[in-house]
């Protein structure tokens, strides 16, 4: 008996389902197609390259320069503070070693040798002789009175006469009496005469004596830089008559100095 041929069914190759086009539009109606693009063209066409703008972060100041500035400022403040401490220590040492004291000045007496007007009362001629006492109370400091000093006598803001101090040296704890001649002339003196007569009737005439004296201090053997003594004395006298005794009712002198 012949063998029966076995026939096996051959499976048919699987067929891929056909690509279906999307029925629902990817881009809603009313919107631009450029927002999403055509899905068919997206699969076929390569994506477009966009030109990107490089991003540059904002510039920041270098930290090293800021740190160096802070360090320089800190060093400057420290040096100034140290310098102030050194100057204060030297000033304290100078004060305790030499014990500086302010000089004293006083107007002891005044005599008028000339005080008259011209014929039309437009000019006033005045000559004063003033005795001034200068005291140096310091034990270790001497005073050199230099040339270029200036003294003046004023009445109601008007300068009556002027002069200067002689050049001399005043030693430690020394008292010197100076006799000074001051002279001058005043213009437009008619109004001054009226005010002077009123004060003379009261028996009290206010005068101001001002002095600017350049000096140099001597400490031991060291001669320091030049200073300028400023002296202001307020005087009340009973009269300004020539060749008469003038009595000083009140005298108040103030002292100052500057470089």
TrEMBL record:
Record field: compositional bias (Basic and acidic residues): 1-11, 32-43
Keyword list, A-Z: Membrane, Transmembrane, Transmembrane helix
Bilayer topology term: Single-pass membrane protein
All copies of domain Late embryogenesis abundant protein LEA-2 subgroup, residue ranges: 132-232
GO biological process: defense response to other organism
Cellular compartment(s): Membrane
Transmembrane segments: 72-98
Keyword Transferase included in the entry's annotation: no
Pfam families: LEA_2
Signal peptide: none
Database matches in InterPro entries: LEA_2, NDR1-like
The keyword Transmembrane helix appears for this protein: yes
GO cellular component, one term: membrane
Protein known as: NDR1/HIN1-like protein 6
Species whose genome carries this gene: Nicotiana tabacum
């Amino acid at each position: 008996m012949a063998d029966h041929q076995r026939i096996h069914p051959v499976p048919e190759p699987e067929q891929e389902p056909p690509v279906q086009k999307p029925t629902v539009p990817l881009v809603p109606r009313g919107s631009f197609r450029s927002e999403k693009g055509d899905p068919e063209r997206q699969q076929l066409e390569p994506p477009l390259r966009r030109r990107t703008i490089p991003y540059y972060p904002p510039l920041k100041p270098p930290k090293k320069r800021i740190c160096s500035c802070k360090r320089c400022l800190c060093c400057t403040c420290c040096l100034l503070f140290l310098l102030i401490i050194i100057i204060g220590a030297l000033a304290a040492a100078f004060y305790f070693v030499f014990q500086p004291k302010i000089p004293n000045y006083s107007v002891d007496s005044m005599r008028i040798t000339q005080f008259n007007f011209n014929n039309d009362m437009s000019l006033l001629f005045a000559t004063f002789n003033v005795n001034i006492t200068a005291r140096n109370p310091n034990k270790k400091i001497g005073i050199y009175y230099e040339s270029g000093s200036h003294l003046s006598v004023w009445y109601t803001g008007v300068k009556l006469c002027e002069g200067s101090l002689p050049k001399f040296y005043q030693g430690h704890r020394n008292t010197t009496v100076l006799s000074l001649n001051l002279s001058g002339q005043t213009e437009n003196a008619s109004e001054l005469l009226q005010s002077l007569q009123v004060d003379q009737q009261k028996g009290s005439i206010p005068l101001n004596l001002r002095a600017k004296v350049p000096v140099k201090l001597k400490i031991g053997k060291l001669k320091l830089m030049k200073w300028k003594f400023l002296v202001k004395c307020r005087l009340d006298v009973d009269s300004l008559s020539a060749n008469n005794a003038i009595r000083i009712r009140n005298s108040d002198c103030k002292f100052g100095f500057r470089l």
